[in-house]
Amino acid sequence: MKILTGNDLKTGAVTWWDGTGWSLHVADAADVGDDADAILAREEAARRVNAAYAIEAELTASGVRPAHIKDRIRGLGPTVRPDLTLKPEDPDAVREVI
Amino acid sequence: MYQYDHYDQAMVDARVAEFRDQCQRRLEGKLTEDQFKPLRLMNGLYLQLHAYMLRVAIPYGTLSGAQMRALGNIADKFDRKYGHFTTRQNIQYNWIKLEDAPDILADLAKVEMHAIQTSGNCIRNISSDHFAGAAADEIIDPRPYAELLRQWSSFHPEFSYLPRKFKIAVIASETDRAAMRLHDIGINIVRNDAGELGAAFYVGGGMGRTPMIAPLINGFVPLDQLITYSEACLRVYNRYGRRDNKYKARVKILVHELGAEEYTRQVEEEFALLIAQSIEPPFAELERIRTYFDEPAFDADASDELDRTDPDFAVWSDRNTHPHKTPGYVSAVISLKPVGGIPGDATADQMRLMAELAEQYSFDECRVTHTQNIVLPHVRKADLFALWQKLDAAGLGTPNLDQVGDIIACPGLDYCSLANARSIPIAQQISQRFHANGKGEILGELKLKISGCINACGHHHAGHIGILGVDKKGVENYQLSLGGSEAEDTSLGKITGRGFDEAGIVDAVETSVDVYLAQRQDGERFLDTYRRIGMEPFKEALYG
Amino acid sequence: MVDPAQNGLRFRTDAPVSDPAVTVEAFAEQTNALAVRIEPGEDVRLLLPFLDRLRLVEVNFPSFGDGRGYSAARILREAGYTGELRAVGDVLVDQIAYMKRCGFDAFQPDELLDRGDVENALSRWPDVYQPTADGRVPIWNLRHG
């Protein structure tokens, strides 16, 4: 699947296109098919997202998994500070993104 | 240390107002991201993996207690209660909101600090020797020259859209503690045969994907021509540095392609024209700046004795102090490299404690080192034990300066959008490994440096042992190099051979260290042994 | 294209030169030309023999990130050029204060600049550190009378 990610212009937070808006959680990412460029252009112009780009991902049993480790780390947080990730209570979260 | 007058303060305040206005125009849509990006970068604001990142300038690495405290308070107020000290003596905050950035700059301005030109294709923060003004081996304190260069380079109208970034380091001793020759311009303040002070200019060094050691282009620039000569170096670069390829745009490539001799000729030609323009500051200005760096009121009767009764303290004081020019004093190095910790990170509480200790024990001064540690430059030997106890209680007493655990590591793929691989977990595993197996205790000086991509922010080219993270078909892979040095015996490391995975690179470092332990002769450091026996024995052990 | 006179970004009192700016190469050959346009890769010092007849130099900025034109401007002013020095092309409001310091006294940006933003930009800096061709007294000298 193809999904979109970027950062919130004001806060810088990593966001994922969920089909209607931008979510903080990669699990919400929607498959955009061939619409990536059109959505990116529209959303960037409206300043609802900054520095957004399209990436490959796959749907696994545990949810949406970006193909590249960089985007998996973006989706979770720094692997060296589990306390600062989006899943501080999940001891397996870091292992799963690597 | 230097203090702003109303002119300096007004310039920094104007910059805060300017950036507030620029942020506003970005949020309103009057600036596109392409237009805004160079403006925010020139205020130290990056967009990184997880958020905006703000890099704050620490000119020549020198901080007062109040400034260090303000850095801690910013970490609490605007970030997640920590900061990261960098290899260019700056500090970075990792979780910044764009809408907060102008307020942070305003808080910094209140303590005479800023984030001006900590990124972008302009002249960056001027770095220097972290023992400046204290080291027994310096010929003069280099920081007044660095401060003059800071003022000259701030808001320089001609050099804000250079081909690439431009880094300058200034030192004033034979011993190089600032990786001087790995900068775009390295300046060494020297004395000529007549006893006069001048500046030796090395131009065209750098790391990155094409590491180069800067050649000497002028061995003695009189100090009343320092700014004019710098301007000539920059103008030749601004006009002729390559702009067709980002990776060939640093001045090192220009110097390399022209040859040092031809580059020097062009600089001298430009200098001859510029000297007629009288752009040099009045010499009284250098004298004015110099008064701020006068020696503190050292106690002439300070005891040179050290009570070494506590064995842990004795180890720490042997490893983490540096000789001071004044009897009875030392420079103490606070390691930000606890075993298994994140190199260069300090919590807000630790920053405030270091601020307090600087005020109490070091004439209100601390320094950031390019190896991501903190120095209290002027500590009485009589106070050293009390200082160490407080540091140790706060997790800041690790006795590993310049040892295998004192690793330089860039933020890597955990934070950086340019990185190809993670650096920090490798550093953590190596420091844990050598702590657990006890070998860390017997290795002596061993400088290990890790970069998560070819941009080499972790100085891997200059590590006795260097590690470079690369992306191998979506999987992290690590190349090992040996034999680099950023000191006065500057050299660039050589790659051992094929790379390793995450577990493999930690083993490979240990294997290399074992070769050294088996082969070292009396008093040799890892680097000395490598230079004597060459790469082959290491290759044999690694790849057999 | 924005007319610099219309946009108010001309800081001179003499009448603008109406001649079209020619290339550096053509300028050297046309002994009656008064106006020249210089591109980033061209050596501005080729113009120095002709300062007596030059009335307008347009310095082109094809992209705002290419800063060679800043050096070109200062070199002309340092050599004594007093005619109009006009920045043209991808010239952004956040750059004009620095450009003015380098000796530009007219601006013809591809995109119309907001008048309020221009005024803010030009009044931003109370003083300056470096001496340049704009004649402002640097802080270094103010400090020492």
From TrEMBL, chain A:
Any Pfam family from its record, for instance, is: DUF2849
Origin: domain of life: Bacteria
**What is the name of the protein in this document?**
DUF2849 domain-containing protein
Q: Which organism is it from?
A: Allopontixanthobacter sediminis
Automatic annotation (TrEMBL), chain B:
Q: Name one GO biological process term.
A: sulfate assimilation
Q: Which Gene3D superfamilies match?
A: 3.90.480.20, Sulfite Reductase Hemoprotein, domain 1, Sulfite Reductase Hemoprotein,Domain 2
Every copy of the Nitrite/Sulfite reductase ferredoxin-like domain together lies at: 52-110, 342-393
Q: Which SUPFAM superfamilies match?
A: Nitrite and sulphite reductase 4Fe-4S domain-like, Nitrite/Sulfite reductase N-terminal domain-like
Highest taxon, organism lineage: Bacteria
Keyword set for this entry? 4Fe-4S, Iron, Iron-sulfur, Metal-binding, Oxidoreductase
Q: Which residues cross the membrane?
A: none
**Natural source organism:** Allopontixanthobacter sediminis
Provide an example Pfam family for this protein: NIR_SIR
Which protein, by its recorded name, is this?
Answer: Nitrite/sulfite reductase
Which positions fall inside the Nitrite/sulphite reductase 4Fe-4S domain?
Answer: 119-271, 402-542
Q: Which cofactor does it need?
A: siroheme; [4Fe-4S] cluster
Named from the GO MF annotations, one term is: sulfite reductase (ferredoxin) activity
| Gene Ontology CC entries for this record | sulfite reductase complex (NADPH)
From TrEMBL, chain C:
Specify the protein name: DUF934 domain-containing protein
What organism is this sequence from? Allopontixanthobacter sediminis
